[in-house]
Structures are given as structure tokens and as C-alpha cells.
Amino acid sequence: MSCALDIGRRTGGDGRNHGRSASTGNPSSRDSTEPRDNFPVNLAQLRALRAEAAEARLAKESNSTASSSLTPLGSILMLARKVDKLGEECYVFLSSAGSSIELSPTQQKELARLMELLTQLQLKIDGVKGDETVRPHRKIQTKRVQSLLSDLEKVSSGSGK
Question: Which of 2, 11, 55, 74 could pair with 70 as two cysteines, CB 3.0-4.6 Å apart?
């Protein structure tokens, strides 16, 4: 008795396919390896899906890898996370500094630290090898870093530094 026939009988069938392919019939019973019918409508959606897939692959990696072993897209996504974290720190700092005319020594140190980290991050972003898939992501992150630096410089110049 063949293995396929044996499996079919155990599940209540006779082991034959009866002329239908496995992918026809109920779409919910399809194997996850089969192609889906919901294709992206435009190029922007395709790029977003590729970015999500790359982020998912990065999230699955349990051990921390050096950015040199990542693909350019993986590197820029890793740097985007760092921009997110630094952006949150900048907004916390900006809200705590408020409209005060003079920064305390602690605030001045924090301002210098944030500006230095953002500058280093910008250099890392500039160092990512660019191809057509990475270029738009790199441009977005560069604009974000420049915007944060600009906001911090406003506080710096307003404090009489």
C-alpha cells in the first residue's frame, strides 16, 4: 500500500485526488506556501511589504549581528529604529526644556549628548550603501535626523549658548 493511499484512508478518504488540484476549492484550506491572490496595488505598497518582511526577518534574529553583515535595507531599518528611540528622547528633552531661556548644566549636557548621537547616527545613515530600494528609506531617515537636530539647535541658540 502506498503512503499517499494510506494517509488518505486514515483521514476518511480513499487516497485519490479525484482530478482536483490541492489549490482549488476553499481558499481558507490553502497551504501557506501557495501564492496569495491579494497582490499589492502599486509600487508604494510593494515597497512597504518588502520593508515589513525585512523588519520581520530582523526581529526573528535572536542574536545581535553587526550592521556590516546586514543587507543595506536591513541596516537602514536598524538605523530607523535608532532614530525612533533618539527621537523619543529628543521630544522628552524638548518638552522638559520647554520655553526656558536658560538651560541648566544638566540640560546642556543632555543637549550636547543628543546632538552628538544624532550626528553619529547621520554619519551611519550616510554610510549605508545605496541602491534603488534603500535610497528612499535613507532619505526619510536623513530628513528625520536633520529635523531633530534643527529642533535641538533652536533650543541651544535660544538658551544663549
Answer: 74
Structural domain total, the chain: 1
> Cell 535613507 identifies what position?
138
- 72: CATH: 1.20.58.120
The string of DSSP letters for 79-131 reads: HHHHHHHHHHHHHHHHHHHTT-SS--HHHHHHHHHHHHHHHHHHHHHHTSPP-
Rounded distance between C-alpha atoms, residue 5 and residue 88, angstroms? 60
Q: What is the pLDDT of residues 119-157, one digit of tens each?
A: 999 999 999 987 888 999 999 999 999 999 999 998 888
* Residue at 19 is within a domain: no
Does 72 map to a domain?
Answer: yes
pTM: 0.56
Three-state secondary-structure class, residue 58: helix
